[in-house]
Amino acid sequence: MTKVLICDLDGTLLDKNNEISLENTRKIQSFSNSGGTFIIATGRLDHDIVYVEKQLGIQGAFRISQNGAVITNKDGKVVFKQEIDSYAAKGIMKILDKRKERVEVNDAIRRYFPSPRPMGGVAEFVDSSVIDPQLNKKVGNSVIPTIFLIFGEKSGFKEIKAAIHKKYEDIVNCVETSDSSLEIMPKNISKGVAVRQIMKELNRTTQDVYVIGDSENDISMFEAAGYSFAIDNASDQVKQKADEIQKTVADCIEVIMNTSPKVR
Question: How many CA atoms does the CB half-sphere of 88 hold within 13 Å?
């Protein structure tokens, strides 16, 4: 089998309890054992993908983390990394530092916080975070960000996006990844860009590549792949962009393996 399946984690493969159903696990193993290539694409850090792969009992040829800002191969080597320009990172940190929203920063391998996270705020499987009260002074110097994460309310996000775009529109994008989270990432970085990069690395054509997602940041994958699935709990906006809607990842794999949907 030459098929490549690239799958989102949160809300797609992982349920609301951060767990993977036995049905999904078995279907992914069947797909991989049949020669398919299963790759995870997520906003999480790379070590969470490694954790999930161990739970699944498979190993992807590549791992897409931080919504496409980092791509790692199966040997753990970073084959692609896009950081935010140091000058811009310092300026963005100054803008954010004047506000009340909580700011966290990723580099290629870990996450940094200015203070401990609120109780129940740890969603990662593997917590490699660093608490540093001097983080605002280190960003752009010893800490080179791949992504800024802001947690707050939509009204505040609108103001932040306006301020960032005014000065750094050519350098970064601002994406609301939920009603309470905003990400600032390098320009021209997305899961879709990462999918195209992996297609080149694997020497695969569009017709070999399928993707599954549920969120706005998965739409770029839909546009890059030959065929796309939205999970049933996705928003209407995401569903409208997908080629097909299925209830679970297992259902998507069933279609891919048995009926070979017509690629766009």
Answer: 22
| Local structure of 6: helix, strand or coil | strand
Q: How many CB atoms lie within 10 A of CB 111?
A: 19
> DSSP secondary-structure letter at 242?
S
Q: How far apart are the first and last CA of the chain?
A: 19
What's the pTM? 0.92
Phi-psi region of 11 (alpha: psi -120 to 50; beta: other; left: phi over 0): left
CB 210 within 8 A of CB 5: yes
* Residue 119 burial class via C-beta count within 10 angstroms: exposed 0-12, middle 13-18, buried 19 and up: exposed
Q: Give the integer Cα–Cα distance in Å for 8 and 249.
A: 10
| pLDDT (tens digit per residue) in 222-245 | 999 999 999 999 999 999 999 999
Residue range 158-199, pLDDT digits in tens = 999 999 999 999 999 998 877 889 999 999 899 999 999 999
| Best CA proximity match to 152, nearest among 130, 174, 126 | 174
Q: Do 38 and 32 contact (CB within 8 A), yes or no?
A: yes
